[in-house]
Design a protein that fits this description.
globular, 60% helix, two-stranded antiparallel sheet, mainly alpha
Length: 291
């Protein structure tokens, strides 16, 4: 939806949220770069300092292109092949987060490969970037709420005690653009779990790594993939749109998240057992306490 209009030009809410998220991302990555935790890895340090603008611009472009592209190919059901002009209507909200994850990861690895970044350095960069992703999810879910999107099942369909708990915690809401039924406010529920819980897990792991000088490559990335998959798997049960796409005992999205969780566990085991993926931060004394 339109947030405001300037000289007849519409500024959409999602554009604002994208801009804010990348500004915050910039400050986070530049702060990490100033701490010089990865000074022993010049390519990583370069993309956190001098090369940060190019790195973030690449992420921004592929977030938009990849997210939209995967929705068109996977969920468009051939609609866009006969409505080609609508492909470029980026102000519309429908995009696929699942396929964005796959697309952006592959394309960013391609970009880093083009820049002659080693696999180890690329994995470190993904770890640093994904620590901040929960903030971006927070803004995106808030946009879903403001736009009255991704409405959820009626609160009356839940067990009475659970319905009371959600109502008392302000996790119920009437979506006036849909109907006048009290529904589960999973926009706020998603914001709480995908932001606070995920961010807390990532920061706890990062602080322990830096205090013990035992930073294991891609543990933060696999943490994000594992816990995000678990949270989204559970939330699918209260999404009204997901109830229409059951395959056997799970929704289409849940099967993706099952695969992602298995993949995350497999990658965790792979990197955990290889000592050459254990790093020692550059500053070996009081690195976290001085942060």
């Amino acid at each position: 939806m339109v947030a405001f209009t300037i000289f007849g030009f519409s500024i959409y809410r999602y554009w604002i949220f994208y801009a804010v998220s990348f500004i915050l991302w910039y400050f986070w990555l530049s702060w990490v770069g100033k701490k010089e935790w990865f000074k022993n890895y010049p390519k990583v340090q370069y993309f956190l300092t001098e090369g940060l603008e190019d790195f973030l611009l690449t992420i921004a472009l592929w977030v938009i292109i990849g997210w939209r592209l995967w929705h068109i190919l996977i969920y468009g059901n051939w609609y866009y092949f006969s409505h080609f002009a609508e492909i470029f209507q980026l102000w519309k909200w429908w995009m696929s987060f699942i396929w964005w994850i796959i697309g952006v990861v592959l394309l960013l690895f391609g970009f880093l490969k083009y820049k002659k970044v080693s696999r180890k350095d690329a994995l470190i960069l993904f770890d640093v970037v994904l620590v901040f992703v929960p903030f971006w999810i927070l803004l995106w879910r808030f946009g879903n709420y403001l736009n009255q999107e991704l409405y959820w099942i009626p609160i009356a369909q839940l067990p009475l005690r659970l319905a009371d708990v959600l109502t008392n915690l302000w996790f119920s809401h009437i979506y006036p653009q849909i109907d006048k039924i009290q529904r589960v406010n999973t926009n706020f529920l998603s914001m709480t779990l995908e932001w606070i819980l995920l961010l807390s897990i990532q920061l706890i792991f990062l602080s322990k790594m830096l205090k013990k000088w035992q930073y294991r490559i891609w543990q933060l990335s696999t943490n994000f993939l594992l816990w995000y998959s678990i949270i989204r798997f559970l939330l699918e049960y209260v999404r009204a749109d997901s109830q229409l796409e059951y395959i056997w005992s799970c929704t289409k999205s849940q099967w993706f998240f099952i695969c992602f969780a298995i993949l995350a566990l497999g990658l965790k085991r792979y990197f955990y057992r290889r000592k050459n993926f254990n790093l020692v931060p550059y500053k070996q004394r009081n690195v976290w306490n001085n942060a």
